[in-house]
Write a structure and sequence with these properties.
Shape: globular
Number of helices: 16
Number of strands: 0
Order of helices and strands: HHHHHHHHHHHHHHHH
Structural class: mainly alpha
Largest sheet: none
Oligomer: single chain
Distance between the termini: 59 Å
Length: about 325
């Protein structure tokens, strides 16, 4: 109990330090996830035997997530997730070259999109519910998630996040659509051969098939790029960003879908705008490579189908799934 009280007394200071480090870009997305895990643990270190109350947990989670949701919906990110050509300053055939400062500013904006999204993923994943399990398993999962507050705490955490899901979805769907559009033949044809060779190289597929060969391919590619010009370095950077932001977006969508048929995600998808939002993601699926489709199905589509309320089957799944099922 004395340790719990001591940890609880440090929560405010640690939260301020974490926020400062993340905002200043001093930590990687992976480190961000660990830091937020620490905050969740400190939030559960109450002075009473039962830990923080439901209302205290709601206040905590709103305080944690609201600044990130606000930035995610701010003008800079809202424009950045849709401005695909803005990701490629000076890269398209016929466009004027840009100096390094312009490219670096573009890179900084893209990386901020990734960092904010990964932070939202870290928060949402921490309160992910285990639907479809037995009552005992759900109770055990709720206790693990909610700390000493148990089921009440876990429910409070989800309630705190559910209100934010609708605010996150629109720009998340826009980002997925934009990433997918990079494989649209019309855009792909506008990239010079050196960009196409690097940006569309399936390095992660090579690594999955043969770890040694994949590592060798990455090393060889880095060696090739390091000895060449600015275009090669820029293409390599964009290739890595696209891979990470694509998988992160799929994971965040999958976590939101995994909260079950009563979650806020399905309430949004049940609205008049729901099928339209999903159609934006389906739009470029025919152009994606099998490696992308596997991740899309494994990380997101499976959870969407498993948890979709029966009432939404006709309008949601029947209206959009044929576009996926006819893919070669």
């Amino acid at each position: 109990e004395a340790l719990a009280q001591h940890l609880a007394s440090l929560a405010g200071q640690v939260e301020a330090m974490v926020t400062q480090m993340v905002n200043e870009g001093k930590v990687t997305p992976e480190e961000t996830a660990h830091l937020y895990e620490l905050l969740f643990l400190l939030a559960g270190a109450g002075s009473s035997a039962t830990g923080p109350s439901a209302s205290e947990r709601i206040a905590f989670f709103h305080r944690i997530i609201e600044p990130w949701v606000t930035e995610w919906n701010g003008q800079e990110i809202a424009e950045g997730v849709q401005d695909v050509q803005g990701w490629l300053p000076g890269a398209l055939v016929g466009s004027a070259p840009v100096v390094r400062e312009v490219w670096d500013a573009n890179t900084k904006r893209r990386h901020r999109i990734h960092q904010v999204m990964i932070t939202l993923l870290s928060i949402c994943r921490r309160v992910q519910q285990h639907h479809g399990e037995t009552a005992a398993a759900k109770a055990a999962a709720a206790v693990a998630i909610g700390g000493a507050a148990g089921v009440e705490g876990a429910s409070a955490q989800q309630a705190a996040l559910d209100g934010q899901v609708g605010l996150v979805l629109l720009n998340l769907v826009r980002l997925v659509r934009s990433v997918h559009s990079m494989w649209d033949p019309a855009l792909r044809a506008q990239l010079p051969a050196v960009w196409q060779q690097i940006v569309y190289r399936a390095v992660e597929y090579e690594a999955a098939v043969d770890g040694n060969a994949g590592a060798a391919a990455i090393s060889a590619l880095i060696g090739e790029v390091s000895g060449k010009g600015e275009d090669e370095r820029r293409a390599m950077e964009l290739c890595g960003w696209l891979r990470h932001v694509r998988d992160g977006a799929y994971q965040l969508l999958g976590v939101l879908a995994s909260w079950g048929p009563d979650s806020a995600l399905f309430k949004v998808l049940a609205s008049n705008d729901g099928p339209q939002m999903l159609s934006l993601m389906w739009e470029h699926l025919p152009y994606l490579e099998p490696r992308h489709l596997r991740s899309f199905i494994r990380l997101f589509l499976g959870n969407l189908i498993r948890n979709c309320p029966p009432a939404l089957y006709p309008g949601l799944l029947q209206g959009t799934m044929p576009q996926v099922l006819v893919l070669p």
